[in-house]
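User: Could you write out the 3D structure of this protein bound to fe (iii) ion? I've included everything you need below.
Assistant: Certainly. Input first, then the structure.
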Amino acid sequence: MARIIGGIATSHIPAIGKAIAQGTQDQPYWKPFFDGYAPVHAWLHEEQPDVAVMIYNDHGLNFFLDKMPTFAVGAAPEYLNADEGWGLPVSMPYPGFPELSWHMIESLVNEEFDLTMCQEMLVDHGFVVPLSLLWPGKEARPVRVIPVAVNTVQFPLPTPARCFKLGQAIGHAIESFDGDHRVVIIGSGGMSHQLDGERAGYINKTFDVSYLNRIVDDVAELCCMSVAELVLMAGAQGVELLNWLVMRGAMTGRVTEKHRNYHVPISNTAGAVMLLENETAMAR
Ligand code: DHB
Ligand code: FE
């Protein structure tokens, strides 16, 4: 059976993609942020996952405000990147895993999640930046990827509790898939930020740190929040933290925090990475 070995949550700010493209990771502005990924690289090297499920939000590339699925799962043989307006270099395609995608879609629909299934899906910085951070190198494609897009853009958004339950259903789906796969779940986006309106530039470090703590050991409390509370505390775009809750929901066993790094600010956002290990009865 396929096994979920862990979860990683990471920022996806476009400026990170630019820093990678320009090779400025060692400059003083960037170093404390990029250095935070070294322990995650070591863990990935040790654990060798072969599949990644990317929980992210599209920012107007594949979906737009006129047609916005609450949850969408990719079922394509490969995923093409395009520039949604940030001027980042377009990445090479990412290999998909249609057999596991369709198994996930069937399993999720059976668990009463009414999904949009996408046999073609363009992926934006919310998908590309985390992969570039976790597996550096333009051509690096060590994992097959399944995109799961969560609407964090067009209200009404799914509730934190619903996002956590989606993660649980993803966990059941993966662990009922035949095959010796090692799967990592990635939650993309956050932490607190608001890019527009009266609170543009808003960052809430106190809330972010408590969110990092609670995602490890008091996730039930996060699931009690309303979307309005999340917007209030994390900012209008900080609601990308919903993607972290889906990732956390997919941790099927005992969760151990292996690493975290929090660095403010990166562009207009609180940057962070967190690595959770998922220890199940199936552990080697
Ligand atoms: C920024 C952050 C985001 O999450 C995003 O999607 C775009 C821009 C920023 O801080 O610049
Ligand atoms: Fe974003």
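The longest helix spans residues 160-174.
User: Perfect, thank you.
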